[in-house]
């Protein structure tokens, strides 16, 4: 649940645009980084990992509509650059199915992409520190920390959307009729009750983090047993 | 989310939307989403949702199934609305309707357009690795769904998923996903190899359907433009006005008439069952 299921039109346009710009820049950087890799080997892997993430994201586990992301698995198997590209593909496709807003694809890619990239680096770090044979603990711990950090990034973005430049600019300059729309404007002008939102997220998420960490750990353990090359090979 | 059903509807429908070009429908969806983004009027957003429902009825596809697919974001919109609660039901309704309308616009696009057509329309603006990734991902989805189905059946038959043994179930299920990854990768590699042998060069072909712009395209574009125009007029009007109520009344009338027509003539499902 680290990524944003915030509908289109709720976040301010400046933050949505900034999300797209940052994502485009990061994608350009990642594509440049993987340009040396033989795509014939990597494209099928991107395809299957992205599809696996979509399947995970569309399967609800418990009644609160929690779903697994498998982004840390993507990071571990694909490496940070390809995983970021894969995350963008996943966000684009699931937005077509109405799962998350289309305009927030940029922001979602940053959040989930960060999850995958952090997952990769944390996994590498724990691999060196723990030197465990099964890889379960390394992957599970990396997944848990990545999910916590990416959820914090998501909350940071929601918090930033409450202090938009337009609002700061409009303080003291609000003429009658400006800034107010037809119905329900109070909610959008006052923005989100951030402490309440953060509290809701941090109450609902840890159960999901634990579940996803365990599942990621077990998947990595299995894949490491049957195809260790998928876990240990060099990454871009 | 039933990806197989979505793909089936997209390929077997014969409504005016199925006959329109993918680009026209992408522009239509873009106009609806732009309306959703700029509007904070509960009544207008409800009118947009009713208009989209009317379009779903016109496609003669199973309405309830499509509405259910597009209703998924409403769960999260409710959480968001609860977090933003300030005592205004209309305000909460605005958030939920924004989620529902934007999702339904996208779902209308995807249930009336085969995926190669959608991807080929956005092909020129995407780098090769993303284009190929999109194609392989979508193809792999169907491979994975079939493998998942077999896996779950296999696990059940061998007692791998049983009531009361939750930890064991999680372990078996996770190993199953690992197996899916390994087997899915083999299939995906073979598929990509076959594509290359057959001369695939990174360009996605739309299949040559609906190459010329026709009445169906104009219909989709006009509806999209009308929705966006109404949102723009109401937005520029600023104050709460009667316009949004008029728009709501018109869209509700269109929905009721379309529903009655489809039920009366018993044409529901006709466009795709054959």
Please mark out the parts of chain B with pLDDT under 50 across 5 or more consecutive residues, or reply none.
none
What would you call the quaternary organization? heterodimer
Strand tally of chain A is 2
Number of strands of chain B: 0
Largest interface: A-B, 78 and 92 residues
Strand order of the largest sheet of chain A: 1-2
Main beta sheet of chain A: 2 strands, antiparallel
What share of the residues of chain B does DSSP label as strand, in percent?
Answer: under 5%
Q: Provide mean pLDDT of chain B, rounded.
A: 82
Q: What's the number of helices of chain A?
A: 10
Shape of chain A: globular
| Rg of chain B computed from alpha carbons, rounded to a whole number of angstroms | 22 Å
- Give the end-to-end Cα distance of chain A, rounded to a whole number of Å: 27 Å
Structural class of chain A: mainly alpha
Major sheet of chain B: none
Task: State the helicity of chain B in percent bands.
Answer: over 70%
Order of helices and strands of chain A: HHEEHHHHHHHH
The Cα radius of gyration of chain A reads: 19 Å
Return residue spans of chain A where pLDDT drops below 50 for at least 5 consecutive residues: 164-190
Mean pLDDT of chain A: 79
Report the β-strand fraction of chain A as a percent range.
under 5%
């Amino acid at each position: 649940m680290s990524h944003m299921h915030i509908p289109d039109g709720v976040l301010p346009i400046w933050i949505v645009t900034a999300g797209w710009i940052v994502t485009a820049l990061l994608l350009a950087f990642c594509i440049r980084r993987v340009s040396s890799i033989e795509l014939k080997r990597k494209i099928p892997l991107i395809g299957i990992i992205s599809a696996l993430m979509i399947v995970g994201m569309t399967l609800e586990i418990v009644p609160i509509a929690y779903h697994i992301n498998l982004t840390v698995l993507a990071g571990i198997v694909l490496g940070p650059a390809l995983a970021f590209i894969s995350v963008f593909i996943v966000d684009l496709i699931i937005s077509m199915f109405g799962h998350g807003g289309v305009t927030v694809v940029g922001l979602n890619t940053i959040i989930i992409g960060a999850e995958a990239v952090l997952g990769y680096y944390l996994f590498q770090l724990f691999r060196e520190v723990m030197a465990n044979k099964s890889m379960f603990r390394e992957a599970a711990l990396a997944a848990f920390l990545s999910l916590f950090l990416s959820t914090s990034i998501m909350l940071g973005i929601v918090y930033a959307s409450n202090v938009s430049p337009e609002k700061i600019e409009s303080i003291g300059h609000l003429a009658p009729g400006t800034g107010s729309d037809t119905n329900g404007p109070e909610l959008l002008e006052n923005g989100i009750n951030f402490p309440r939102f953060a509290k809701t997220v941090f109450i609902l998420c840890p159960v999901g983090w634990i579940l996803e960490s365990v599942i990621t750990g077990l998947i990595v353990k299995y894949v490491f047993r049957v195809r260790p090359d998928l876990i240990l090979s060099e990454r871009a | 989310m039933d990806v197989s059903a979505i793909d089936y509807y997209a390929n077997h429908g014969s409504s005016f939307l199925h006959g329109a070009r993918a680009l026209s429908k992408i522009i239509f969806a873009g106009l609806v989403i732009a309306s959703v983004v700029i509007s904070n009027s509960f009544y207008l957003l409800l009118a947009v949702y009713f208009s989209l429902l009317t379009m779903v009825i016109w496609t003669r596809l199973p309405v309830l199934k499509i509405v259910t697919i597009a209703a998924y974001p409403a769960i999260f919109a409710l959480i968001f609305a609860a977090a933003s609660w300030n005592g205004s039901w209309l305000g909460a309704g605005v958030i939920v309707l924004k989620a529902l309308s934007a999702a339904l616009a996208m779902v209308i696009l995807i249930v009336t357009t085969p995926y190669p057509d959608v991807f080929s329309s956005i092909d020129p603006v995407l780098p090769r690795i993303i284009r190929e990734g999109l194609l392989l991902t979508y193809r792999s989805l169907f491979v994975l769904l079939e493998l998942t189905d077999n896996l779950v059946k296999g696990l059940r038959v061998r007692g791998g998923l049983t009531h009361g043994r939750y930890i064991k179930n999680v372990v078996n299920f996770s190993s199953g996903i690992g197996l899916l990854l390994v087997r899915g990768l083999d299939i995906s590699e073979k598929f990509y190899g076959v594509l290359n042998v057959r001369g695939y060069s990174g360009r996605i072909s739309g299949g040559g359907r609906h190459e010329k712009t026709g009445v169906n395209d104009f219909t989709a574009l006009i509806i999209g433009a009308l929705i966006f125009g109404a949102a723009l007029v109401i937005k520029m009007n600023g104050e709460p006005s009667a316009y949004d109520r008029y728009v709501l009344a018109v869209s509700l009338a269109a929905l009721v008439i379309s529903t009655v027509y489809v039920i009366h003539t018993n044409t529901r499902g006709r466009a795709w069952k054959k």
